[in-house]
């Protein structure tokens, strides 16, 4: 140990060796200037053998040099910056949703803005209409124009300003004509061929406002100019009645209000009387199946297929119609026809769910439905579900010998169902 308690060293040691032991690694010149000066002065005093003074200078340098505190200060500064950014983002989002909540939006606007339509609005106009700003066409809105729009939107329920309120309540035809001219997927409308009662009816049906849709479509029927338009209006009315009576349950199976289904069938009957369409024939077949009128259901389904034999959903309906009449061979031929076309998975799922609804509503009555569910699931690629229903069918004592042999064969070799 050398005098004065200084660090041991030899005369041959380089001065650069001493700082490397005395300072924090990786901090050769990053320290505060004052600490660096004390440290350098301590080195010079050490060279001059003034060890006590050198030790004091090094102690002063050590007291001024706090790398841990410095790192903590940098971290605190970064966290403070992050908090400021997050606060700014939260403020912007809060203001956005505050304005979005305060501005009442017309459901017609939301319906049209939800599709990919041509749009000539400015970004601010689109924001006012839909709550979601868009690129727009570059139109700049002045303060006066903005205030007028703001005042107008809050005058909807003001009873003292009926004139302004009525300006925002045009007739259905005018309203939908304006919307389609502004956002129509076909561009600006120049003709009058499109019936806005039909457009409004389908739009309100999509929004779930069935009563208003029925009212508007019936208004259109009362003033229809020709048979073709009358047929289109009745078809729209039939669709509205159907979806009004349609309820999708949590298990993804549907239930139906048969009174509304009957109204739908009556409207479809009138539709094909004035303007026959394939869609109407196919939907009539399904409506009469739900109503239990299998003779009409089969007749209309076959008529739809006579116009277009690729209608897979009608073919599946025909299989179901034959199945409930215990005509198993005809039912299987219909399902097999669809399976051989290798349709998309949702086509199989539609047929399977229809069969599941039949089993749900008639427990134990139609065991053949289990065999057809198994068959469709094999083609769909859902082997566990297919095997479950095939076993369920084999457990039923009413299974015939021919169909039982097929079920056993498909259970052992699922590939054989794809080749059958």
Give the tags.
22 helices; mainly alpha; 420 residues; Serine Threonine Protein Phosphatase 5, Tetratricopeptide repeat; 1% strand; disordered N terminus
Put the structure in a nutshell.
The protein is an all-alpha fold and 420 residues long. The chain has helices at residues 17-22, 33-47, 51-64, 67-102, 107-113, 123-130, 143-153, 162-167, 172-183, 196-207, 210-222, 227-244, 258-274, 278-291, 294-307, 312-324, 328-340, 345-361, 368-380, 383-394, 401-412, 415-419, and strands spanning 246-248, 254-256. Residues 1-31, 106-121, 123-140, 154-170 and 183-192 have low confidence and may be disordered.
Number of E-type strands: 2
User: How is the biggest beta sheet arranged?
Assistant: 2 strands, antiparallel
Order of helices and strands: HHHHHHHHHHHHEEHHHHHHHHHH
Strand content: under 5%
The CATH class label of the largest domain is: Mainly Alpha
CATH architecture of the largest domain: Alpha Horseshoe
Mean pLDDT: 76
Report how far the terminal alpha carbons are from each other. 99 Å
Query: Over the alpha carbons, how many angstroms does the gyration radius reach?
Result: 40 Å
CATH topology of the largest domain: Serine Threonine Protein Phosphatase 5, Tetratricopeptide repeat
Which percent bin holds the helix content? 55-70%
- Helix vs. strand class: mainly alpha
What overall geometry do the principal axes of the alpha carbons give? elongated
CATH superfamily of the largest domain: Tetratricopeptide repeat domain
In the predicted model, the low-confidence regions spanning at least 5 consecutive residues are 1-31, 106-121, 123-140, 154-170, 183-192
Number of domains: 4
Strand order of the largest sheet: 1-2
What is the number of helical segments per DSSP (H or I, 4+ residues)? 22
């Amino acid at each position: 140990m050398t005098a004065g308690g200084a660090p041991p060293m030899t005369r041959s040691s380089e001065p650069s060796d001493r700082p490397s032991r005395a300072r924090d690694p990786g901090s050769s010149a990053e320290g505060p200037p004052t600490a660096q000066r004390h440290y350098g002065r301590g080195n010079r005093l050490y060279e001059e053998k003034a060890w006590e003074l050198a030790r004091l200078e090094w102690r002063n340098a050590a007291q001024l040099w706090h790398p841990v505190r410095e790192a903590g200060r940098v971290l605190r500064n970064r966290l403070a910056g992050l908090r400021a950014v997050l606060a700014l983002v939260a403020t912007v989002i809060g203001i956005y949703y505050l304005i979005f909540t305060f501005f009442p939006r017309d459901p017609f606007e939301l319906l049209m803005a939800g599709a990919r339509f041509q749009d000539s609005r400015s970004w601010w106009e689109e924001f006012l209409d839909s709550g979601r700003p868009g690129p727009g066409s570059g139109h700049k809105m002045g303060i006066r124009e903005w205030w007028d729009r703001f005042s107008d939107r809050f005058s909807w329920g003001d009873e003292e300003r009926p004139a302004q309120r009525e300006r925002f309540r045009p007739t259905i035809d005018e309203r939908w004509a304006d919307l389609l001219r502004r956002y129509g997927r076909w561009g600006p409308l120049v003709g009058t061929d499109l019936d806005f009662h039909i457009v409004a009816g389908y739009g309100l049906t999509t929004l779930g406002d069935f009563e208003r849709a029925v009212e508007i479509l019936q208004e259109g029927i009362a003033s229809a100019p020709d048979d073709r338009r009358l047929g289109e209006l009745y078809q729209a009315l039939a669709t509205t009645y159907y979806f009004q009576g349609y309820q999708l349950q949590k298990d993804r199976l549907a239930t139906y209000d048969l009174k509304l289904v009957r109204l739908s069938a009556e409207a479809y009957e009138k539709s094909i009387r004035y303007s026959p369409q394939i869609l109407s024939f196919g939907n009539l077949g399904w409506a009469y199946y739900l109503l239990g009128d299998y003779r009409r259901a089969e007749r209309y389904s076959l008529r739809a297929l006579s116009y277009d034999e690729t209608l897979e959903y009608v073919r599946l309906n025909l299989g179901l119609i034959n199945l409930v009449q215990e005509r198993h061979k005809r039912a299987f031929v219909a399902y097999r026809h669809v399976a051989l076309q290798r349709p998309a998975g949702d086509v199989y799922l539609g047929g399977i769910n229809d069969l599941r609804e039949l089993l749900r509503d008639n427990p134990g009555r139609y065991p053949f439905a289990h065999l057809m569910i198994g068959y469709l699931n094999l083609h769909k690629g859902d082997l566990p579900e297919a095997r479950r229903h095939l076993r369920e069918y084999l457990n039923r004592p009413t299974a015939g010998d021919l169909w039982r042999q097929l079920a056993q064969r498909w259970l052992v070799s699922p590939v054989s169902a794809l080749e059958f």
